[in-house]
Amino acid sequence: MKIRGKDYLLPVVGVGSWPRPKWMSGRVLGTVDGPDFLSFEAREKFEDCTRLAIQDQEMLGFDVISDANQYMEAATPFDYELLFETIPNRIKGTVPYGPSVPFPGWEKFHTITVNSELKWVRPIFAPVLEVVRRYTDKPIKLNVFGVAGQSLFLNDEYYGDPEALAFALAKVYNDEFKDLVSKGLVDIVQFLDLSPNYMATPYIADTVNAATEGVDADIWVHSCMGNATDRFYVPGSADVMMPDALKINMQVLHLALAHPLRSPDLDMFKKWPLPRNVALGAGVVDVKDPTPDGVDTIVARIERILEVVDPNQVVLMPDCGWMNKLRHTAWDKNAELVAAANIVRARYQ
Description:
This protein has helices spanning 40-60, 80-86, 126-134, 147-151, 162-182, 197-200, 204-212, 268-271, 295-306, 327-348, and strands at 2-3, 6-7, 65-66, 92-95, 112-119, 140-145, 154-156, 188-194, 218-224, 227-228, 231-232, 252-256, 279-283, 314-317. By secondary structure, the protein is of the alpha/beta class.
């Protein structure tokens, strides 16, 4: 497959996050009306732990470098609260408070309130990607929460319509991505959405397409089953996203396929084959179990996927959720992923 115009056979790529060092804690980025970083100490620690995360990926031999999400708090089950807050806190038209998140189990978290027109007025992720670009010449992938999914965690007091809110947010995303591309800071934009979002927001594909219209970057989509800490938050099959997901103008669709609960999701590509211009980002490393998977086990998972999907349409990735794990766990399991990829590549070259 091609990544930014270059041919790769079974490239190895991380999903998004990477474990934070134990000495790194707390928030990093400021809000729209404040400095980019909360303090010089926060900035220095962020730059150091991002450098280490990039170095790990480079030394492992990844073909694409993910931003590593070091700006997010980690090592707790509640990290996704900050994932939901990062973008709205850095755009005009919001205030950093609102009622509880209206989903069972999330009531302890609060929404961000939209009280006027949403506007992009300054870079959101440039402070992050400037650090990433400093330490790698490989393609850089930014992982962002999807437009429609993000809008579900906003308390709308301005637009009065969920769809209008989502498309207003898509315009902000579009401005942000074009700014990042103009500065040479991003090669791939990857959207993260829970699979059930495709039912909750039937216009999800249109919002992604609006957010990426005219953006000179590869577009990837990570369909998540709530893969954080030691369990999945979303039951059932990922096929709830089909066929709407295939309406997205994207180059890669990533799914967790290594864990026994998720491996049956591969069968949905027998019913809905991927278009020739879309690759499967196949999760072939189980993030839930800290024990190394074993190279032979990963090879078998890859071969199983290649029985369904053309090797030229496969990107090898872990399942998602490294942020809550130990760094040595991520290293050991990803080292096996790279070794397995090399074995399988040799069979198909």
